[in-house]
Design a protein that fits this description.
Layout (H helix, E strand, L loop, with lengths): L1 H21 L3 E4 L3 E3 L4 H19 L6 E2 L7 H7 L7 H10 L4 E10 L2 E10 L4 E11 L4 H16 L9 E8 L5 E4 L2 E5 L4 E7 L1 E8 L6 E7 L4 E6 L10 H37 L2 H7 L17 H39 L5 H8 L3 H4 E7 L4 E7 L2
Parallel strand pairs: 1-3, 1-4, 2-4, 7-13
Antiparallel strand pairs: 4-5, 5-6, 7-10, 8-9, 8-11, 11-12, 14-15
Helix pairs in contact: 2-5, 6-8
Length: 386
């Protein structure tokens, strides 16, 4: 007898709960209409916005439950009802036919930076517009991001109901550092403990960043959906590590300057060999007529003796020797640049202040090559600043 009474009370409670749930007024969500420029991207954004609104309504956390016939399009219903606009009288007729107490509808138009959607809430019985809301959608927003924006818009229009926590989502963070500070939209929210942190955020899109001593700040964008969980991994690079800007251009400078130096050194050696071969081809008789002994590296301007053949050898030797001098100087200059770049890329580790200062300097400001040319000297002065 006692068990039967408990069972009866339980059934009575369930019936009461069922009646209470069914007592919620119904909201119908019409498909968002695209106005102005109609293309595939605009149509997709409108569809994602509609689905996000309907999904949020289906959760039942707010003051309404989704009407069973909430799968119709605004543009189709206006045609069926012969509505020239979204006037309250015509829209209330549409809502009444759908069995809804409240009608949610809207229009989406393309803008210069994405889309703008205007949403209206209509009280079907009163035949009056109760609320309106303008929603901005970035052009780069993904399908999930648009749906998250729609869910937040629904919450802004109708509230979260008796369970406000249902509109919150959970973000789990896993970082490659043990300690650090977590920022949400540049506002400090949490600290890492053992490289992990958990955030409870309202629906929407956020910029989440982590700062840790000795590491570079890492920032990403995340989309939070109410009642759902998401996770993100953060890889913070070391300050001054090979992945930084300093090494990213010093290594190519090192490789390029070393390659040029090697090529110029090869050309210099080849031209010196050619000069020596040509000098050795000058006959001994011509050397005597020239009034002096010609060395392998000499290129005197007063050589007038000898025959035409010997004079041609001598001229070729002089030309090759001049090329040797120019390429020799060039090889020395680029070799010095390679040494400096190697130091900056693989050895030097600037302090945080120096790194910030040097990041503002261009490569042209760091390296200065001043040519030095005189009748007796050919060369250059290399200056490297860090």
């Amino acid at each position: 007898m006692k068990h039967a009474a408990v069972f009866a009370l339980a059934m009575l409670f369930l019936a009461f709960a069922s009646r209470a749930a069914s007592a919620k007024p119904k909201v119908a969500v019409l498909g968002i209409e695209v106005t102005g420029t109609i293309d595939q991207a605009s149509t997709g954004a409108a569809h994602d916005l509609t689905e996000g609104l309907r999904t949020k309504a289906k959760q039942g956390n707010g003051p309404f439950q989704l009407a069973a016939s909430s799968d119709r399009e605004l543009i189709d219903e206006k045609v069926l009802k012969n509505c020239d606009s979204e006037g309250p009288l015509c829209m209330s007729d549409i809502g009444r036919d759908m069995g809804a107490d409240v009608l949610l509808y809207g229009q989406l138009a393309k803008t210069s930076d994405g889309y703008s959607a205007k949403l209206w809430v209509l009280d079907v019985k009163k035949k009056t517009k109760e609320k309106d809301l303008t929603v901005r959608i970035p052009a780069i927003a993904s399908s999930d991001a648009v749906r998250a924006i729609a869910k937040k818009a629904y919450t802004d229009l109708f509230g979260g109901g008796k369970d406000p926590s249902a509109a919150l989502g959970t973000l789990s963070i896993d970082a490659n550092v043990d300690a650090g500070t977590v920022f949400v939209d540049d506002e400090q929210k949490e600290v890492l403990q053992g490289g992990k942190a958990t955030l409870r955020l309202a629906e929407g899109r956020y910029r989440v960043a982590i700062e840790s001593p000795g590491r570079r700040r890492k920032e990403i964008e995340v989309t939070i959906t109410g009642g759902e969980s998401a996770s993100e991994s953060f890889e913070l690079a070391e300050r001054g590590a090979g992945g930084g800007k300093r090494a990213s251009y010093w290594k190519p400078v090192f490789g390029a300057s070393l390659g040029v130096a090697i090529v110029l050194a090869g050309v210099s050696w080849f031209e010196l060999s050619q000069s020596r071969d040509e000098i050795l081809s000058v006959s001994e008789a011509s050397r005597t007529k020239a009034g002096k002994t010609l060395t392998q590296d000499a290129c005197p301007d007063d050589f007038t003796g000898g025959n035409d053949i010997d004079r041609a050898h001598f001229n070729d030797a002089c030309s090759a020797y001049k090329v040797h001098l120019v390429t020799y100087v060039g090889a020395a200059v680029f070799g010095a640049v390679a040494i400096g770049a190697a130091y900056m890329a693989f050895v030097h580790k600037p302090s945080e202040t120096a790194a910030k200062t040097s990041a503002r300097k261009s490569l042209r400001d760091r390296i200065a090559i001043t040519p030095v040319v005189s009748p007796e000297t050919q060369g250059a002065i290399l200056g490297v600043t860090w």
